[in-house]
User: Fold this.
Amino acid sequence: MNILISNDDGVFAPGILAAKQAVEDLGNVCVVAPDKNNSSVGRRLSLFKHLKINSCELEDGSPAYSVSGSPADAVIVGADYLMDEKPDLVITGINQGVNISCDITSSGTVCAALEAVSLGIPAIAVSLFMDPKTSYKQDENGEWYIDYDFTLSKKVLHNLVLKIINDGFPNGVDLFNLNVPSNYESEDVMITHLADKMLDKEVIDNTNKEKEDLFNYPLGENQDSDDLIMITSNLVQEYDEGSDGYALVVEKRPSLSPLNANMTCKDLKDW
Assistant:
């Protein structure tokens, strides 16, 4: 099996190395990803624009390619230009953050997988749901850092790809959206549907005292903020049973959502 791996966090993000390590014993792996972080860019394409490709090495010394474009660009470049043969499977991730609900259309990770589907290639989007209570830690000097524990996500991804090799994709399924919690209570994967939404969003300005620190954090010294606003968000905490959010937040177990790229609603008889 020829496997193309990409992401939206950038080619040097730890999650893409984890994805490669999870499946490298199952096929020929090629890593092609954006040269920098492209989170939340959706399915942006750099059509009729010049892109630069660079050869690079991942942390384990294995070869990879960086592309000066979006996650969807990287999938196109990898599948149509860099690989000798069309990939049998595209994996995007492992994303450093959750991608669930109907909000996935803003995700660079999921939309890169959708781009693969448009090229006729089945895909898996993989994300790590990091629990702030266990993922953010302090070193011996008191400095905060993020502990990316990909252990379970690598295991689940490996088993999923192995099942696809043996059984193929289910009929009607174009891609899988896999989310794995870092702080889990069960390793059993739950087949889920998309929740209604993942984020509650709010627009703030410099008059919002409650979120003053958040608003001012990215400002430069002496920068005027009177004409600036910021879109903030909080993760939804309540989900309907059987949804991806319910599996992750309530049951604290991996969620696997089978998706179809065709968003057409066909039943309009009553309307």
